Amino acid sequence: MERRTISKEVYGRVISLIPQEIIDMLPENPEKLLPYATRTKEVQVTTGINDDVRDLMQEYLLSDEEYLKTFFYVMAITFYNKVPVENPEIAIVAAQTGSGKSMQVIMESLGGGGHQTMAAAQLKHITPEAARSRIQTAIDQYREAQKKSGLESGSEQKKKDKQ
Predict the structure, then answer these.
(1) Could you tell me which of 128, 140, 104 has the C-alpha nearest to residue 36?
(2) Mapping DSSP to helix (H, G, I), strand (E, B) and coil, where does residue 126 land?
(3) Number of helices (H), then strands (E), in the chain
(4) Across residues 66-84, what is the average pLDDT?
(5) Of the residues 67, 157, 158, 160, which has the maximum number of CB atoms within 10 A of its CB?
(6) Per-residue pLDDT averaged across 63-67, rounded?
(7) What pLDDT, on a 0 to 100 scale, did the predictor assign at position 160?
(8) Alpha-carbon span 97 to 31, nearest angstrom
(9) How far is it, in rounded angstroms, from Cα 73 to Cα 67?
């Protein structure tokens, strides 16, 4: 999945709207955080979603401005009054989706939470490589559970059809 960064033009508009108190809470100069605020190049929508729902998801997708503003607020809240460490062993995982509860369920399996369109988890005492592995495992387990759920509902339907 290809990712893209937020433009400097959008950054300029957003940074002027954020109160100085929030900027002071950030762990780094906001411009240095900009490379971490990436988005997918194309919205990924699960197959099987009807066109009306797909259109609604597209309509309510956060703009780059809304996304970046949210990113800065989350960073400020997450890192406020935290002491920097030389070799950090923590990963903050934030996920955004418009396709239902999949991100919420995945982040909950990692000890986090959220709601239908945005969710997050904080992984402690973990290297970036291990965090990536845990996230991939959580995604794989979610997909497997979805497949099993679909198979179970299909077999139950067959039982009902026989009756």
Answers:
(1) 128
(2) coil
(3) 7, 5
(4) 84
(5) 67
(6) 90
(7) 47
(8) 25
(9) 10
